[in-house]
Amino acid sequence: VRRYRRGESQGIVVAGGNGSGNRLDQLSCPHYVFVDRDHSVYVSDWENDRVMKWVEGAKQGIVVAGDQGQGNGLTQLSNPWGVVVDQLGTVYVADARNDRIMRWPKGVTKGSVIVGGNAEGGQSNQLNGPTGLSFDRHGNLYVVDNGNRRVQKFNIDSNS
């Protein structure tokens, strides 16, 4: 992952850059990037089924979600796509193959399902390959429900 400032043509590597792999200084098929206020870079590492955080200037990342092998347990992800991080450091992940949105509070190794996780489907409580997510200023969660060709809006209580 490279950062380019306006007017730059080279950019600098801010995450990965050491070939494809599963070491903490590597990524394997990164799909999405989120940058927080401290300039830390969060990357959904699709083939490694994890989300990595790269603090500004770091040579290796920190696993903040997943990295327990592909699966549907609360410590696992399966092909993560979209990532959003709130001001408390809580990581929200579109867990595409598990048809769910996961929440990982800062410092925990086990996440929780906040949307979906009820098998692939088209009902209002189901998702089909979610790929993106975003919050509005009122705390509503918007999910790109790719397989159902829709965007769903959810009211999420961040304390639950």
UniProtKB/TrEMBL annotation:
Entry keyword set: Glycoprotein, Repeat, Signal
Keyword Thylakoid: no
Keyword Signal recorded: yes
Signal peptide: none
Listed Gene3D superfamilies: TolB, C-terminal domain (2.120.10.30)
Ranges for the NHL repeats: 71-107, 126-157
Pfam families: NHL
GO CC terms in record: extracellular region
InterPro entries with a match to the protein in the record: 6-blade_b-propeller_TolB-like (IPR011042), NHL_repeat (IPR001258)
Protein name from the UniProt record: NHL repeat-containing protein
Biological source species: Didymodactylos carnosus
